[in-house]
Amino acid sequence: MKIQSAEFVTSCVNGEQYPKGQLSEIALLGRSNVGKSSALNSLFNRKTLAKVGKTPGKTQMINFFRVALSDTGIEPFHVVDLPGYGYAKVPEAVRKQWRPMVEHYLTKRDTLRGVVVFIDIRRTEQIDKDLVEWLRVLQLPKVIVVTKADKVVSSKRKEALLRTRQELSLSQDTEVLLYSSHTHEGRPEVARALKNLLTEKT
Ligand SMILES: Nc1nc2c(ncn2[C@@H]2O[C@H](COP(=O)(O)OP(=O)(O)OP(=O)(O)O)[C@@H](O)[C@H]2O)c(=O)[nH]1
Ligand SMILES: [Mg+2]
User: Fold this and answer.
1) Of 64, 128, 147, 151, which one has the fewest beta carbons inside 10 Å?
2) Given this model, what pLDDT does residue 201 score?
3) Which CATH class, in words, describes the domain spanning 3-199?
Protein backbone atom coordinates (compact mmCIF):
# COMPACT_ATOMS: atom_id res chain seq x y z
CA MET A 1 0.00 0.00 0.00
CA LYS A 2 1.62 3.22 -1.14
CA ILE A 3 0.50 6.29 0.78
CA GLN A 4 0.25 9.50 -1.17
CA SER A 5 -0.91 11.55 1.81
CA ALA A 6 -2.29 11.00 5.29
CA GLU A 7 -3.41 13.92 7.38
CA PHE A 8 -5.48 14.79 10.41
CA VAL A 9 -8.83 16.40 9.55
CA THR A 10 -10.77 17.08 12.74
CA SER A 11 -11.84 15.86 16.20
CA CYS A 12 -15.55 15.61 17.01
CA VAL A 13 -17.77 14.81 19.94
CA ASN A 14 -21.10 14.99 18.11
CA GLY A 15 -22.68 14.51 14.71
CA GLU A 16 -22.86 18.17 13.75
CA GLN A 17 -19.09 18.32 13.80
CA TYR A 18 -18.48 15.38 11.45
CA PRO A 19 -16.77 16.40 8.22
CA LYS A 20 -19.13 17.06 5.34
CA GLY A 21 -18.66 15.42 1.97
CA GLN A 22 -18.86 11.95 0.55
CA LEU A 23 -15.50 10.34 1.28
CA SER A 24 -15.87 6.69 2.24
CA GLU A 25 -14.94 5.91 5.82
CA ILE A 26 -13.42 3.11 7.85
CA ALA A 27 -13.59 3.25 11.64
CA LEU A 28 -11.18 1.73 14.15
CA LEU A 29 -12.76 0.17 17.23
CA GLY A 30 -11.40 -1.68 20.21
CA ARG A 31 -10.57 -1.62 23.90
CA SER A 32 -8.65 1.30 25.34
CA ASN A 33 -4.94 0.71 24.99
CA VAL A 34 -5.32 -2.14 22.48
CA GLY A 35 -3.33 -0.14 19.95
CA LYS A 36 -5.82 1.48 17.52
CA SER A 37 -3.99 4.80 17.22
CA SER A 38 -0.64 3.00 16.94
CA ALA A 39 -2.02 0.83 14.15
CA LEU A 40 -3.27 3.89 12.30
CA ASN A 41 0.21 5.44 12.46
CA SER A 42 2.01 2.29 11.43
CA LEU A 43 -0.41 1.37 8.63
CA PHE A 44 -0.11 4.79 7.07
CA ASN A 45 3.60 5.30 7.76
CA ARG A 46 3.19 8.39 9.89
CA LYS A 47 4.73 8.10 13.34
CA THR A 48 2.78 10.90 14.96
CA LEU A 49 -0.45 11.18 12.98
CA ALA A 50 -2.62 9.91 15.84
CA LYS A 51 -1.66 10.38 19.48
CA VAL A 52 -0.63 7.20 21.23
CA GLY A 53 -0.73 6.72 24.99
CA LYS A 54 0.92 4.55 27.60
CA THR A 55 -2.20 4.91 29.73
CA PRO A 56 -5.66 3.87 28.47
CA GLY A 57 -8.08 6.56 27.38
CA LYS A 58 -5.67 8.53 25.22
CA THR A 59 -8.19 9.03 22.41
CA GLN A 60 -11.35 10.62 23.80
CA MET A 61 -12.90 12.15 20.71
CA ILE A 62 -13.77 10.89 17.25
CA ASN A 63 -10.72 11.73 15.17
CA PHE A 64 -10.95 11.88 11.38
CA PHE A 65 -7.95 11.38 9.11
CA ARG A 66 -7.88 11.72 5.35
CA VAL A 67 -5.80 9.21 3.45
CA ALA A 68 -4.97 9.12 -0.25
CA LEU A 69 -3.27 6.07 -1.74
CA SER A 70 -1.14 6.02 -4.84
CA ASP A 71 -2.79 2.76 -5.93
CA THR A 72 -5.20 3.30 -8.74
CA GLY A 73 -8.87 2.58 -8.23
CA ILE A 74 -9.15 3.63 -4.57
CA GLU A 75 -10.53 7.10 -3.99
CA PRO A 76 -9.25 9.13 -1.03
CA PHE A 77 -10.99 8.05 2.17
CA HIS A 78 -11.32 8.81 5.88
CA VAL A 79 -9.95 6.64 8.64
CA VAL A 80 -11.75 7.34 11.89
CA ASP A 81 -9.93 6.68 15.15
CA LEU A 82 -12.57 6.10 17.81
CA PRO A 83 -12.03 6.28 21.56
CA GLY A 84 -11.50 2.94 23.21
CA TYR A 85 -13.90 1.19 25.57
CA GLY A 86 -13.86 -1.00 28.61
CA TYR A 87 -10.96 0.16 30.67
CA ALA A 88 -11.68 0.49 34.39
CA LYS A 89 -8.93 3.06 34.87
CA VAL A 90 -10.50 5.46 32.39
CA PRO A 91 -12.48 8.09 34.35
CA GLU A 92 -16.18 7.35 34.75
CA ALA A 93 -17.18 10.60 33.00
CA VAL A 94 -15.18 9.60 29.91
CA ARG A 95 -16.53 6.05 29.91
CA LYS A 96 -20.11 7.31 30.16
CA GLN A 97 -19.83 9.43 27.07
CA TRP A 98 -18.33 6.61 24.98
CA ARG A 99 -21.50 4.74 24.15
CA PRO A 100 -23.72 7.61 22.93
CA MET A 101 -20.84 9.14 21.01
CA VAL A 102 -19.82 5.92 19.27
CA GLU A 103 -23.39 4.67 18.85
CA HIS A 104 -24.37 7.88 17.10
CA TYR A 105 -21.37 7.61 14.80
CA LEU A 106 -21.90 3.92 13.94
CA THR A 107 -25.62 4.20 13.32
CA LYS A 108 -25.90 7.60 11.63
CA ARG A 109 -22.83 7.95 9.48
CA ASP A 110 -23.89 7.22 5.89
CA THR A 111 -20.36 7.23 4.51
CA LEU A 112 -19.19 4.49 6.92
CA ARG A 113 -18.19 1.45 4.85
CA GLY A 114 -16.92 -0.82 7.59
CA VAL A 115 -15.11 -1.15 10.87
CA VAL A 116 -11.84 -2.66 11.95
CA VAL A 117 -12.09 -4.24 15.40
CA PHE A 118 -8.82 -4.55 17.30
CA ILE A 119 -8.41 -7.39 19.79
CA ASP A 120 -5.34 -7.95 21.96
CA ILE A 121 -3.67 -11.21 20.93
CA ARG A 122 -3.24 -12.16 24.59
CA ARG A 123 -6.89 -12.06 25.58
CA THR A 124 -10.46 -11.50 24.43
CA GLU A 125 -12.64 -9.80 27.03
CA GLN A 126 -16.39 -10.07 27.49
CA ILE A 127 -16.70 -6.47 26.36
CA ASP A 128 -15.02 -7.36 23.05
CA LYS A 129 -17.61 -10.11 22.56
CA ASP A 130 -20.38 -7.62 23.33
CA LEU A 131 -18.99 -5.16 20.80
CA VAL A 132 -18.79 -7.76 18.04
CA GLU A 133 -22.34 -8.85 18.81
CA TRP A 134 -23.50 -5.25 18.60
CA LEU A 135 -21.79 -4.83 15.20
CA ARG A 136 -23.57 -7.97 14.04
CA VAL A 137 -26.91 -6.44 15.02
CA LEU A 138 -26.00 -3.23 13.20
CA GLN A 139 -24.96 -5.34 10.17
CA LEU A 140 -21.78 -3.38 9.71
CA PRO A 141 -19.07 -5.02 7.61
CA LYS A 142 -16.07 -5.76 9.82
CA VAL A 143 -12.56 -7.08 9.87
CA ILE A 144 -10.95 -8.34 13.09
CA VAL A 145 -7.34 -7.38 13.69
CA VAL A 146 -5.60 -9.39 16.40
CA THR A 147 -2.93 -6.94 17.41
CA LYS A 148 0.22 -6.76 19.54
CA ALA A 149 1.18 -10.01 17.81
CA ASP A 150 4.78 -9.35 18.89
CA LYS A 151 3.69 -10.09 22.48
CA VAL A 152 3.26 -13.77 21.62
CA VAL A 153 6.03 -16.02 20.26
CA SER A 154 5.58 -16.57 16.55
CA SER A 155 4.91 -20.32 16.90
CA LYS A 156 1.82 -19.55 19.04
CA ARG A 157 0.29 -16.75 16.96
CA LYS A 158 -1.85 -18.88 14.65
CA GLU A 159 -3.27 -20.66 17.67
CA ALA A 160 -4.11 -17.32 19.31
CA LEU A 161 -5.83 -16.21 16.12
CA LEU A 162 -8.02 -19.32 16.06
CA ARG A 163 -8.83 -18.93 19.76
CA THR A 164 -9.90 -15.31 19.14
CA ARG A 165 -12.08 -16.40 16.24
CA GLN A 166 -13.82 -18.94 18.47
CA GLU A 167 -14.18 -16.61 21.43
CA LEU A 168 -15.89 -14.04 19.24
CA SER A 169 -18.09 -16.71 17.57
CA LEU A 170 -17.21 -15.35 14.15
CA SER A 171 -18.62 -16.78 10.96
CA GLN A 172 -16.16 -18.17 8.43
CA ASP A 173 -16.60 -15.20 6.12
CA THR A 174 -15.31 -12.70 8.72
CA GLU A 175 -11.64 -11.97 8.19
CA VAL A 176 -9.35 -12.28 11.22
CA LEU A 177 -5.80 -10.99 10.74
CA LEU A 178 -2.65 -10.84 12.83
CA TYR A 179 -0.95 -7.49 13.25
CA SER A 180 1.81 -5.74 15.13
CA SER A 181 2.32 -1.99 15.03
CA HIS A 182 5.83 -2.50 16.34
CA THR A 183 7.08 -5.02 13.76
CA HIS A 184 4.56 -4.26 10.97
CA GLU A 185 3.72 -7.96 10.78
CA GLY A 186 0.47 -8.35 8.85
CA ARG A 187 0.57 -4.91 7.26
CA PRO A 188 -0.05 -6.08 3.65
CA GLU A 189 -2.96 -8.27 4.75
CA VAL A 190 -4.58 -5.51 6.82
CA ALA A 191 -4.07 -3.05 3.96
CA ARG A 192 -5.83 -5.43 1.57
CA ALA A 193 -8.71 -5.88 4.03
CA LEU A 194 -9.14 -2.10 4.31
CA LYS A 195 -9.26 -1.78 0.55
CA ASN A 196 -11.87 -4.55 0.41
CA LEU A 197 -14.05 -2.73 2.93
CA LEU A 198 -13.74 0.44 0.86
CA THR A 199 -14.68 -1.20 -2.42
CA GLU A 200 -17.32 -3.68 -1.25
CA LYS A 201 -20.74 -3.02 -2.69
CA THR A 202 -23.35 -2.81 0.03
N1 LIG B 1 4.08 -4.48 21.88
C2 LIG B 1 3.20 -3.74 21.24
N3 LIG B 1 2.70 -2.62 21.82
C4 LIG B 1 1.79 -1.89 21.14
C5 LIG B 1 1.34 -2.25 19.84
N6 LIG B 1 0.41 -1.35 19.44
C7 LIG B 1 0.32 -0.44 20.44
N8 LIG B 1 1.13 -0.75 21.46
C9 LIG B 1 1.31 0.02 22.72
O10 LIG B 1 0.06 0.03 23.40
C11 LIG B 1 -0.16 1.29 24.06
C12 LIG B 1 -1.50 1.88 23.64
O13 LIG B 1 -1.47 2.24 22.26
P14 LIG B 1 -2.56 3.22 21.60
O15 LIG B 1 -2.30 3.12 20.14
O16 LIG B 1 -2.53 4.55 22.23
O17 LIG B 1 -3.91 2.48 21.99
P18 LIG B 1 -5.42 2.91 21.65
O19 LIG B 1 -6.16 1.66 21.32
O20 LIG B 1 -5.44 4.00 20.63
O21 LIG B 1 -5.91 3.44 23.08
P22 LIG B 1 -7.09 4.52 23.43
O23 LIG B 1 -6.80 5.76 22.63
O24 LIG B 1 -6.93 4.69 24.90
O25 LIG B 1 -8.38 3.89 23.07
C26 LIG B 1 1.06 2.16 23.70
O27 LIG B 1 1.98 2.10 24.78
C28 LIG B 1 1.62 1.49 22.46
O29 LIG B 1 3.01 1.68 22.29
C30 LIG B 1 1.88 -3.45 19.24
O31 LIG B 1 1.55 -3.85 18.12
N32 LIG B 1 2.80 -4.14 19.99
MG1 LIG C 1 -6.16 5.89 20.67
Assistant:
1) 151
2) 62
3) alpha beta
